[in-house]
Amino acid sequence: MDYYKILGVAKNATPEEIKKAFREKAKKYHPDINKSSEEFFKKITVAYETLIDPEKRKKYDLSLKKQKLSYFTDKLYETFGFTSKPIKGKDIHLKISLSLEEGFFGKEKEIFYERKEHCPKCEGTGLSSNSILKECFKCKGKGKYKKAFLHLPCFECHGKGYVILNPCDMCGGKGLVKKQVKKIIKIPRGIQEKNKIKIKYGGNGGKNKG
């Protein structure tokens, strides 16, 4: 809940601006005037009481910075695969040569390429019937650990918080295997050079069954 947004003021708003915004909101949303807005009026009051008090505002601003940093860190971890959440697989880009006739009239064309797919044996989980999930000794199950003022991703468990003992023997616990695939794509009539054709679900499978 963003108190600044509730009152409709900037992060650097002065006490006078906060008071003015509260008075305007109170006139509009006071339960005596608008009974259906009682819950929102409570939020307005809490926001005002927090932002008008210098000490409370200082603590609140600090909590906002921590939330923003935590969100940025989590997104960064996800980008590099340090998470237990499903991650979208990378796109694959292929160049295809066409004859003048094929480009003019269009046609169906077979393409062959290698992609990463979810392991058929473990269905992308990386687990086998003999697998044991053990809490990561380095991060104690948190997926990250604190060093000085930084929260670093755990390289031991890749942000999952656990390690797999006796993983799937087909994918080695990664959940993905390489496979040669064939796709039939439809070349539209009159396609131009450097035009792109998108094949849904044609790219790599993602980690954690993404």
Descriptive notes:
Helix content is 32%, strand content 19%. It is of the alpha+beta class. Helix 2 (15-29) runs antiparallel to helix 3. It has 5 helices and 6 strands. The chain has a two-stranded antiparallel sheet. The protein has a two-stranded antiparallel sheet with strand order 2-5. A two-stranded antiparallel sheet has the order 3-4. The protein has helices at residues 3-7, 15-29, 38-52, 54-79, 100-105; strands at residues 107-118, 132-135, 144-147, 150-153, 162-165, 176-187. The two termini are 30 Å apart. A hairpin with a 2-residue loop joins strand 3 and strand 4. The mean pLDDT is 86.
Summarize the structure.
32% of the residues lie in helices and 19% in strands. The protein is built from 5 helices and 6 strands. α2 (15-29) runs antiparallel to α3 and α3 packs across α4 (54-79).
Task: Determine the N-to-C terminus distance.
Answer: 30 Å
What value does the Rg take, in angstroms? Answer: 27 Å
Q: Oligomeric status of the shown chains?
A: single chain
Mean pLDDT, rounded to whole units?
A: 86
What is the molecular shape?
flat
Main-sheet strand order equals: 1-6
Q: Approximately what portion of the residues adopt beta-strand conformation?
A: 15-25%
Instruction: State the share of residues found in helices, binned by percent.
Output: 25-40%
> Could you give a short account of the major beta sheet?
2 strands, antiparallel
Count the beta strands. Answer: 6
Sheet/helix structural class: alpha+beta
Low-confidence segments? none
